[in-house]
Structure formats: C-alpha cells, structure tokens
Amino acid sequence: MDFELTDIQKQIQQTFHDFVERKVKPVAGRLDEEKQFPAILFKELGDLGFFSMRYPEEAGGSGLDHVSYMLAVMEIARGSLSLAAACTMQSLMATYFLYRFGDDDIKKNYFEEALKGNKIGAICMTEPNAGSDLMAIQTIAQGTSEGFILNGQKTWVTSAPVADFFTVLARTDNHDQLSIFFVPSNFEGVIIGKSIEKMGVRASVTSEVAFNDVKLPKRYLLGEIGGGTKCLKEILAEIRIMTAALAIGVATAAYEEALVYANERQQFGKPIGKFQAVQLKFADMCVKLETAKHYVLYAATRCDKNLPRHKESMVAKLYASECAVSICDEASRVLASYGYAVEYNLERYLRDSRFTLIGGGTSEILKINIAKEIGL
Ligand SMILES: Cc1cc2nc3c(=O)[nH]c(=O)nc-3n(C[C@H](O)[C@H](O)[C@H](O)COP(=O)(O)OP(=O)(O)OC[C@H]3O[C@@H](n4cnc5c(N)ncnc54)[C@H](O)[C@@H]3O)c2cc1C
Prior knowledge:
Blueprint: H1 7-24, H2 28-34, H3 39-47, H4 66-79, H5 81-91, H6 93-101, H7 104-116, E1 121-124, E2 140-143, E3 147-158, E4 165-172, E5 178-184, E6 190-195, E7 206-217, E8 221-222, H8 228-264, E9 266-267, E10 270-271, H9 276-304, H10 310-334, H11 346-353, H12 363-373
Parallel strand pairs: 1-4, 2-4
Antiparallel strand pairs: 2-3, 3-7, 4-5, 5-8, 6-7, 9-10
The chain binds flavin-adenine dinucleotide (FAD).
C-alpha cells in the first residue's frame, strides 16, 4: 500500500504498529473475554501521545495531521477494536468540546489530564428514544440564576462506568436547538446505570447514565445555548472517517490472519490457499481492503487541507464498515471450524466488526444523506 505517506506519517504508523504487536495483540482476546476496561493499555496509549495527537501544540497536543491520526487508529483497531473504541472516544468526541469551549479550570483539570490518559471522558448523546434522530433528545437543562439543572436519561455511553467526566447533549428550556454541557461524573445526581452486555467490543465498557437534578454552574455550558448541533457538525466528518479507520483496522487483522492460515493449512495434499475458490476470496478481500483504506486516507487528507469532506466522510464510513463486516465474514470462512472457535481471533473480529456499522451513522442513514448530497 503506497499512499505516499510522509516520513513522519510512516514513523507514527510504525510506532503504533510496534506497540500493538508487543502489547495489544497478545492480550486482546483475554480483554474481550473479561469484558473489562483496558485501563493499563489505555494509560500507555496516553503516554504514547495518542490522545493528544490531533490537538494543536498550544493546547497541549502534538499538532499532528488527520492522516497520522487515522493511521494510528487503524493500527490500534488492528490489535483490539475494544481498545480502539475507548481510545478514539477519548481522543475525539469526549475531549473536543472541552478543548473548544472549556474555561481554564476545565482545560487544566480535565482536558489536559485526559490528553495524558489520567482522566477518562465520555459523550452522552443517545437516549432510549433518540438514536439516529438526535433532535428527539429529551434530556433537559433548565436555566436558573446560578446555572442549570440537568435531568434526563442517556444510554449506550462508551466508557461511562469508568468515566471522570461527561460531555452531554441536552435541550434547554428556552431553545429548540441542542446545547452541550460538561458534567463531572462525581456530581450529585449523576447515576451510572447498568452496563450493556454486547455482542462485540466487549472490553469497551458501555452503560446507561441518568442525570437527576444535577446542578451545573453556568461555566459548564460548552459553547452557546442552542449551539450544540452546529458544534457537533464541526467534528462529524472526522468522527465518520475515524469510524471508517476503526473498520479498516479490524478488517486488516482478519485478512492478515486468514492469509497466514491459508498458507499453512493443508487439505487434499496442499495448502488451502492453492485452491482457486480460496484465492478468489482473497482477491475480493484485498480489493475491498485496499480501496477502502485508500479512500479513508483520501478523506483524511481533505480534513488536513480543509477541503469539503461531508460527502467523502459518509462514503468512507459506509464503504469501510460494510467492507469490514464482509471481510471478517469471508476471512472466518477461510478458517472454517477454527474461524468459529473462540480460541482463534476470527470470531472476535466478526463480532467486533459489526460495531462499525452503527457508530457515526448507520448505513441506511448514510445512504439517505449521500443521496441528498448528490442532489436527490
Ligand atoms: C458499541 C456502541 C457504543 C456506542 N457508544 C455511544 C456513545 O459513547 N455515546 C452515544 O451517545 N451513543 C453511543 N452509541 C449509540 C449509537 O450512536 C446509536 O446506536 C446510533 O446512533 C443508532 O441509534 P439506535 O441504535 O437508536 O438506532 P435507531 O436510530 O433506532 O435505528 C434503528 C434502525 O432504523 C434505521 N433508521 C432510523 N432512522 C431511519 C431513517 N430516517 N431512514 C431509514 N432508516 C432509518 C437505522 O438505520 C437502523 O437500521 C453506541 C452504540 C454502540 C453499538
């Protein structure tokens, strides 16, 4: 794959590749089985600079480009999609609004600590009755003379059981548009609900969060009243490209492991990779993986060049996630019974890959919006 990466981009890719080979791959299966937040690896990725790479230097980040960030995401997801899901949440959605709108106290005590991996953040958008349709959000922040009182129920919150702070999308009593609030998890009235048992990404812990009369000072409003939807759009393309990078990571792992197996496994007196039926599977997987990866990096370069990327981010996310599920499925067939065995990684990849179909917009929602973009 030659996307003409710069020397720095290649170096970053190699750094995360080596980290994943040494630290993540050997434990990824156990993490999934134990369904525990991977606290040690999370902190080590903080020390390696993953959480700060996409923020500018003046904010305590390393000011790297989007291509570098996506390459790192692909590598981490190649090792463990659970770990990558928790880490991308931290590096993007959970911290972005603190960076944009937090006051000195929020920046010093939460944002900068989150960049080092010392504090964990989460984003609360989804509600029991508001998934794809975020405008149906019912969580309400009632304005008072001192600030706001927050009430509502959120669900599917990645990292909620271990989070130190939340970024919460809510409506206010005086505006139809949504607003964004900063909420420390130890505030009175913040209740972490039951963990959600999932099919995949099981080491990325997810739960419900309730806000019962949580009193927030005025300064915890991030941005303007009613400015939440617009601000969310600022990073929507990046969220989608990042989800596409997650998909590439897990698909690469499945493809690479199936390839090794196809060269080793002997049936009818030769490696199964010598049978044309198996070769055709690999040709199809290779085409999907290469095209999806190139397109995701192309979409990331549009972010770096500040070019329009709304449509490109949707194409990237839709194509990469659908390719990932199909590649993980085909790769597990190459291993046949061993692809069905928990002892091998392929069944985990297949379960995990389905997560990439959901976050950042479902395939159906993306298709509808792509059709709108092309004038239908
Ligand atoms: C592992 C995991 C982690 C997550 N982490 C977070 C998190 O940290 N924070 C957070 O806020 N949320 C999180 N989510 C929630 C995620 O963002 C939502 O699940 C997603 O937005 C889809 O919402 P929904 O599941 O309610 O599906 P729905 O919106 O109810 O959709 C159900 C089905 O209907 C289809 N559909 C809906 N509307 C339309 C339409 N207009 N036209 C055609 N088809 C339509 C969808 O495509 C889908 O097939 C997470 C989800 C998962 C699985």
